[in-house]
């Protein structure tokens, strides 16, 4: 019975806490205050990772684009490696790796992806930075929104929206550049010679970026992002997230004139609301963990700055776990079962990717044995089998392939005296015959091994082998 009461009390506590949550449903525009600080600097540094998205397509490798998703030719060029659809199983492992990595990060440090790396968060941060440069501080922006339209207001708003649209355009253009030759895309796009898919993609990204980062902003995190809806089940009491130290901060109260730390009867929180003012989603971290918290830690910068001004220790809001605030010793990382599960999946996925990349042949060979008939007895008493070789060239150049075969004594290959030219990125079939004197066959089926070999334009020899079977009469 006591367990039931405790459970009900815990549920009631959760409901009481949720009543104080503030989730902006779009009825107001969040104008977050921007201040300098340690976490703001870290946020800019991590956001700079997205420069790869804009600059990556222009990186060259061996005379061509280093990373290119060539969908029309069904090729994926990654520096010196070309991956074809037959090898896309590695993409599944790569997606699995990053999905589990996101789950690991969430379990350890909360929504760190949302706060520091997510493209929605980063683009929104850039858009609001432009807004502040043009329209001023949050109070000034709110005042401008309420003012009647004037020439100055039209000029300011028009400049802001044009810059937003321009960023959206470059976002879409950079996305398309990963799928075609980036330098050539500029001329083709503006001369009207690009593929219709390029124009549609750029238009969708331009509008999407403009609407999501310029207007919806935190609403995207609240209502559209699936990760925001499921991340709650990934957290536990050992997860480190930005947390308000209620025992130290309560009861709240402003600093009175002449008051000292020794004479203060209230907690360290001076109820300045700066933690709310800087929050990009407009929540109050002092009300506990909430759906709207993206763990960007900007509230930590704001609170630390205020604590220094009023002569209090920093860390009233800090990265900490619920166990830490409950006075419990942090649980060792290796004693958490989910860590072992996540680590195992990550190791398997990563091992599969490394194996696939290391075993990636430039030529993929498949050998098909003729079934009707399985063999033919020639006039000289030799046994002959027919094979179709399918050679997949994964290189961006044509290759002249030499075919050889090894097996029983006296084996002779017919139909592959001259090299076979296989086209870049395609499958080339070749029909060959293998003849073996009947006296050299020890059993009805003998293993034979086909080998194809070619020399690239840079002098590097590429090869592939495949084992098949030679069929003869029953012995």
Can you walk me through this structure?
- With 475 residues, the protein is of the alpha+beta class.
- It has 17 helices and 16 strands.
- It folds into 2 domains: 1-360, no CATH class; 363-471, Immunoglobulin-like, CATH 2.60.40.
- Helix 4 (89-109) packs antiparallel against helix 17 (337-358) and helix 6 (119-135) crosses helix 10.
- The radius of gyration is 33 Å and the shape is elongated.
- The model has no long low-confidence stretch (mean pLDDT 87).
Count of discrete structural domains: 2
Q: Which range best describes the helical content: under 10%, 10-25%, 25-40%, 40-55%, 55-70% or over 70%? A: 40-55%
Which stretches are low in confidence, meaning pLDDT under 50 for 5 or more residues running? none
Q: Quote the distance from N terminus to C terminus.
A: 82 Å
Proportion of strand residues: 15-25%
Number of helical segments? 17
What is the 3D shape? elongated
Radius of gyration: 33 Å
Specify the structural class.
alpha+beta
Major beta sheet, specifics?
Answer: 5 strands, antiparallel
Number of strands: 16
- Mean residue pLDDT: 87
């Amino acid at each position: 019975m006591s367990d039931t009461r405790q459970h009900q009390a815990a549920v009631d506590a959760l409901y009481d806490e949720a009543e104080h949550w503030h989730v902006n449903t779009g009825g107001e525009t969040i104008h977050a205050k921007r201040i300098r600080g340690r976490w703001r600097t870290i946020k800019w540094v991590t956001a700079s990772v997205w420069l790869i998205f804009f600059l990556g397509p222009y990186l060259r490798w061996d005379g061509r684009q280093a990373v290119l998703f060539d969908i029309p030719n069904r090729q994926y060029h990654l520096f010196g490696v070309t991956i074809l659809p037959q090898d896309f199983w590695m993409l599944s492992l790569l997606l699995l790796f990053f999905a589990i990595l996101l789950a690991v990060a969430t379990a350890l440090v909360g929504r760190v992806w949302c706060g520091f790396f997510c493209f929605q968060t980063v683009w929104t941060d850039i858009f609001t930075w432009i807004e502040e440069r043009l329209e001023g501080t949050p109070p000034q922006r709110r005042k401008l929104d309420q003012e009647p339209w004037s020439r100055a207001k039209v000029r300011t708003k028009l400049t802001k929206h044009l810059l937003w649209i321009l960023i959206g355009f470059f976002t879409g253009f950079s996305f398309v550049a990963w799928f075609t030759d980036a330098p050539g895309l500029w001329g083709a796009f503006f001369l009207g010679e690009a593929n219709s898919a390029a124009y549609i993609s750029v238009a969708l990204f331009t509008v999407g970026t403009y609407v999501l980062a310029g207007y919806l902003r935190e609403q995207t995190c609240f209502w559209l992002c699936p990760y925001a809806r499921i991340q709650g089940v990934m957290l536990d009491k050992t997860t480190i997230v930005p947390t308000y130290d209620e025992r130290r901060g309560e009861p709240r109260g402003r600093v009175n004139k002449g008051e000292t730390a020794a004479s203060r009867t209230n907690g360290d929180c001076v109820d300045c609301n700066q933690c709310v003012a800087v929050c990009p989603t407009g929540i109050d971290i002092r009300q506990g963990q909430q759906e709207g918290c993206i763990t960007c830690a900007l509230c930590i910068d704001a609170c630390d700055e205020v604590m220094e001004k009023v002569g209090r220790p920093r860390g009233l809001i800090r990265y900490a776990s619920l166990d830490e605030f409950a006075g419990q010793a942090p649980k060792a990382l290796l004693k958490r079962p989910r860590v072992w599960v996540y680590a195992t999946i990550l190791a398997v996925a990563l091992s599969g990717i490394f194996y696939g990349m290391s075993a990636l042949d430039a030529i993929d060979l498949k050998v098909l044995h003729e079934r009707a008939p399985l063999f033919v007895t020639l006039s000289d008493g030799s046994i002959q089998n027919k094979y179709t070789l399918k050679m997949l060239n994964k290189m961006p150049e044509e290759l002249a392939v030499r075919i050889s075969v090894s097996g029983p004594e006296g084996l002779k290959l017919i139909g592959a005296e001259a090299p076979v030219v296989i086209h870049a990125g395609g499958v080339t079939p070749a029909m060959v015959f293998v003849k073996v004197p009947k006296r050299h066959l020890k059993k009805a089926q003998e293993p034979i091994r086909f080998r194809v070999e070619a020399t690239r334009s840079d002098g590097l020899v590429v090869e592939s082998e495949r084992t098949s079977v030679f069929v003869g009469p029953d012995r």
